[in-house]
Design goal:
Number of helices: 4
Shape: globular
Order of helices and strands: EHHEEEHEH
Helix content: 25-40%
Radius of gyration: 15 Å
Strand content: 15-25%
Distance between the termini: 39 Å
Number of strands: 5
Largest sheet: 5 strands, mixed
Oligomer: single chain
């Protein structure tokens, strides 16, 4: 099951973000915890797994080129041992409902160096369209 995060969940959310960051398979700088906490507080809605095994943080933002708004993810992570459960589906379902209730589109980003295709397939199974990608050189 999932629930809306509360202020007391910030430590958990930070731990999940650090775990996620360490497993994405990209050469990224380490998370600066105070900066991360300031950034994640910009989320409009955060959901966590009841077993501290996943997190989805959402933010309402404007399109870069227009005044219209959409909902996007700041952080979406499910621990490897919970990926065969319905946790990811439930978190994404909550995001879809949140966006639907706001009458806004939902655009989810995937930033990973590992299993990008699998993550893409997950979103396709949840009836989301592929609309682009990100590429990195370092």
């Amino acid at each position: 099951m999932i629930r809306e995060a509360v202020l007391d969940d910030l430590e958990l959310i930070c731990k999940l973000a650090i775990e996620n960051h360490a497993t994405v398979g990209l050469e990224l700088p380490p998370i600066n915890v105070p900066k991360f906490l300031s950034w994640i507080k910009q989320a409009n809605k955060i959901y966590v797994g009841d077993k501290a095994d996943g997190v989805l943080a959402l933010r309402v933002v404007p399109f870069d080129y227009a005044d219209a708004l959409y909902v996007t993810n700041l952080l979406f992570y499910v621990k490897p041992q919970s990926r065969k459960s319905l946790l990811g589906v439930r978190l994404l379902g909550a995001a879809k409902k949140y966006a639907h209730d706001l009458k806004l589109p939902l655009i989810m980003g995937v930033m990973t160096g590992e299993d990008a295709e699998l993550k893409g397939e997950f979103f396709k199974r949840q009836h989301m369209r592929f609309i682009g990608g990100a590429y990195m050189e370092n």
